[in-house]
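Structure tokens please, single chain.
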Amino acid sequence: MDTKGVVLGFLAGVVIGGVAGLLLAPTSGSEVRKKIKDELEDTVEKVREEAESLKSKAEEFTTKAKELLDEKTEEIKEVLEKSKEAIKEKKEELSAKLLKKEEA
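Here you go.
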């Protein structure tokens, strides 16, 4: 299950539970409305905080992924350069052997 779905499900449960608790409590209508408003404001704030936290984690993940990609790209470039150099040396070695055979 994805994180977004879990967070949204949790928040929906908090809101529904809070509203149900307020509606079932023996209080006046104005008090119930105020409590619902307060609960809603608290929930909205929790959603904002969670969204900010998720955004921060996503940015951190993106930064780390980019750093890792850059690192691996450099490693691949180094391997390719070494491979090219080894191929060049082998080619020169084989060319020299071929010239010796032709001269003989």
